[in-house]
Amino acid sequence: MSLLSKVTTGKQALPPRLTVYGWEGVGKSTLGNGAPNAIFIDAEGGLGELDCARFPLAKTGDEVFAALAELRTADHPYRSVVIDTADAVERMFHADVCKRYGVNSIEKAAGGYGKGYTEAAALFERMFAALDALRLEKGMVVIILAHAKVEKFSDPVEGVEFDRYSPRLHKTAAALVNEWSDAVLFATRRMRIERNDKDRASAKPIGAGGGDRILRTEGGPACLAKNRYGMAAEIPLSWASVCDAITRSQMPAAPVAAVAPVTTAPTN
Length: 268
Known about the structure:
The N and C termini lie far apart (about 60 Å). By secondary structure, the chain is of the alpha/beta class. The strands form two sheets. Strands 1, 2, 3, 4, 5, 6, 7, 10, 11 and 12 form a ten-stranded mixed beta sheet that branches. It has helices at about 30-35, 60-75, 85-100, 115-135, 170-180, 240-250, and strands at about 15-20, 40, 55, 80-85, 140-155, 160-165, 185-190, 190-195, 200-205, 215, 225, 235. It is globular and about 55 Å long.
């Protein structure tokens, strides 16, 4: 059978792979818990006040992989898996690499020169493979949570440098997460900038309770973000909003109406 005979068309409605990052307390874990029948792989112990299903606190990369393996092989009711958080898992991966080489710094691992980060990146790729197996074999939604940091970013096109928000990960791991995810969403509050009579700027919340909580879905000077679902640039910070945006993107396109042929009246 030829490869051409196996060609398919149309959209594939697969469970999403989402990365959601933001500052502490903004509502990342609450969003993850809103996903259908979610279970957390807890890597940092910050879920005490959340009514959720969770594995025992993971302290090593091996314990993260053990939880992922059990979700793949065991019968269970869970339909979503949430990694909380990627930066905590990265610290475990760094510790695992350092232990392997008998050093106390990832900078010294594997002989230095950034090789330790490369080995930690391989552990991220192993984690992604395990998450993809859950997605494809078990039909599970995959959500990775992460904290935010401010980084310097140089735009080679415009020739300018500016600060922007990004996941709190080493650049090698951050690039892998960004490439693998179907959407990278920045969780924040809607704010406005005000200046006083001395031209000092301050951020003021827009909305009740410290500002409306939103997800930024498109990247730009302010933050790293992306999505493959055609989401609006900002959506409310909730699972319902994310689910609605993804569902809309996966709906089949409306059929094109038949167009009557154009006729040209004869000229005299």
